[in-house]
Design brief:
With about 180 residues, the chain is mainly α. It is built from nine helices and no strands.
Length: about 180
């Protein structure tokens, strides 16, 4: 369900937007595999397709290490050394972050959502594991919010992110 519409113009506009959107992002759960691919290449495609849900399930089952936030902050302080604005934000994160404010931190325009999104797009296991504590907190908070919203009216929320042309091409190829 995309929404409840009482005015015809609103439903027509929504249907038009959805149709336009579906032209760019076809609805398929399977990655398109060219016919001339070998079995080994198809196996690689399927492995990549199955990787994310299996990995996230395993990640959510594991308990983060006790000092995970400190390890993350130390690693990022080293990476962002000399970038005073990010160092300041890292200090704020270190002092104020708690598991019940993961969504708030993720939606701020800071290093955090950029680092996490890039790690997930590039399947950067080291960075994903470094962010394990945050991913679990974010998942749990979103799950709680979802359960609170069950049965109530839906709200659409959007988030945009700048990515390089190369990343756009990689995403197009993955369609």
């Amino acid at each position: 369900i995309k929404g409840v519409f009482k005015i015809w113009k609103d439903i027509i506009r929504q249907l038009s937007d959805d149709a336009r959107y579906s032209d760019y992002f076809p609805l398929t759960i399977f990655q398109r595999i060219p016919e001339d691919k070998t079995t080994n290449e198809i196996d690689r495609y399927m492995t990549e397709w199955l990787w994310f849900p299996l990995f996230t399930d395993a990640l959510l089952e594991m308990k983060p290490v006790d000092n995970a936030k400190q390890l993350f902050v130390v690693k990022l302080k080293h990476y962002y050394k000399g970038n005073t604005a990010t160092e300041k934000t890292l200090n704020e994160f270190n002092e104020t972050y708690s598991s019940d404010c993961a969504v708030s931190w993720y939606t701020k325009d800071t290093f955090l959502y950029r680092v996490l999104n890039k790690a997930l797009r590039h399947q950067d296991i080291e960075t994903i594991l470094l962010l394990h504590f945050f991913i679990v907190d974010l998942h749990n908070q979103l799950k709680q919010e979802y359960e609170k919203q069950l049965g109530s009216e839906r709200t659409k929320l959007y988030r945009g992110q700048l990515i390089s042309k190369q990343e756009v091409e990689t995403l197009k190829k993955a369609r």
